[in-house]
Amino acid sequence: MTTTTPVVVTSEKGLAQEIVSGNHRWRADEPAPFGTDTGPSPYELLLASLGACTSMTLRLYAQSKGMDLKRITIRLQHFRIHAEDCRNCETL
Question: Which residues sit opposite 28 in a β-bridge?
């Protein structure tokens, strides 16, 4: 069994979040007018993690096959339409 470093997310003022994992610290937030844009949104963080995982997997595969890749670039984009996202949401 492999243990992983815990990720701790602490809510700050407004929607800003501090994220800590081991020696690494970063922030998440929402753009104005909902947040203060002090860090990437949760959707951007998710896309970043998926892109990083894809790039690392390609690099490891290429290395195992003796391929010398110079650079891997992954471009990701997310689209969301709130009305469709929340079609079956309960309203408060």
Answer: 17
Q: In this structure, what DSSP letter does residue 24 have?
A: E
For residue 12, CA distances in Å to 39, 42, 55 come to: 12, 15, 32
What does the pLDDT look like over 36-68, one tens digit per residue? Answer: 999 999 999 999 999 999 999 999 999 999 999
Q: In what order do the strands lie in the sheet with 7-11?
A: 7-11, 17-21, 24-28
Locus of tokens 């003796």: 66
What gap in Å lies between CA 24 and CA 55, rounded to an integer?
A: 20
For the chain, how many residues are written?
A: 92
